[in-house]
Structures are given as structure tokens and as C-alpha cells.
Specification:
alpha+beta, Thrombin, subunit H, PilZ_domain, cyclic-di-GMP binding, PilZ domain-containing protein
Length: 129
């Protein structure tokens, strides 16, 4: 039974954030230099969620460049796909991709937490007004 307790370690914000990612590979010859642009639908210091046109596969490691603030450089965590659900949006097939950050520095966590907290405060001000 759901008891309204938040299970996540970090606060998250369902707000669009611009990001780029590429598939990470240990083999230099197969590593891609092609960055894919996506809009993140939610973000926390623990991970993110986005919709993508291709199946990325559970466990796939990804490098990210995430714009959390216009006044600060992007954060660059490494994540891995933990959920990948296909859905149909005729005539296309799309994938809901959930990412867990597996390598993220304390400075990057702080930048994401600050951006999320700021967005949550702005939401509270808007809902009170």
C-alpha cells in the first residue's frame, strides 16, 4: 500500500532541463563522439528521466552534460539506464528512459540540488499567490 512517503534520497523536480548524452564505452574504438540532445522531464541528484526515440538498453552507461542553470557550466554526471519502457506514438515508437547517476561529484550534486530547490521554492510562491 502506498503511504505517501517519498522513497527517493534526493528531491526532484518535474521541469524540463536541457541535456546532451552519449553512450559511454570502455573501448576507445567504439566510443561515440556524437552527443544526443534531449529534454529531461525530471531531475534530481540521484538521476533523471527522459523520452527518447531509441531503445538504449537496461544497464547502458551514459555520459551527460546537463544545463541546470543559465549562469553556471553544465554538470557532467555518468548515469546508467535502469528502466526503459517502450510506448507507441503513431507512427513512432518512443522509449521512457530512467537513469540512475552512478558517478557524480559532490559539486555536481550540489548544483543539481540548488537548481531543484530553487524551482520548488518558485513553485510554492506561484501556488500561494
Amino acid at each position: 500500500m502506498y503511504n505517501d512517503l517519498e522513497r527517493r534520497k534526493y528531491k526532484r523536480k518535474e521541469k524540463p532541463y536541457m541535456a546532451k548524452f552519449k553512450i559511454r564505452s570502455d573501448a576507445q574504438e567504439t566510443e561515440s563522439d556524437d552527443w544526443n540532445s534531449v529534454t529531461l522531464h525530471s531531475l534530481s541528484a540521484g538521476g533523471t528521466f527522459f523520452i527518447y526515440k531509441k531503445d538504449l538498453g537496461i544497464g547502458t552507461p551514459l555520459d551527460f552534460k546537463i544545463e541546470v542553470s543559465k549562469s553556471k557550466p553544465p554538470v557532467n554526471p555518468i548515469g546508467k539506464v535502469i528502466r526503459n519502457e517502450q510506448f507507441q506514438l503513431p507512427p513512432y515508437s518512443m522509449f521512457c528512459i530512467a537513469i540512475k547517476f552512478i558517478d557524480i561529484g559532490e559539486h555536481e550534486k550540489e548544483a543539481i540540488n540548488t537548481a531543484v530547490e530553487k524551482a520548488l521554492v518558485q513553485d510554492n510562491r506561484t501556488s500561494v499567490a
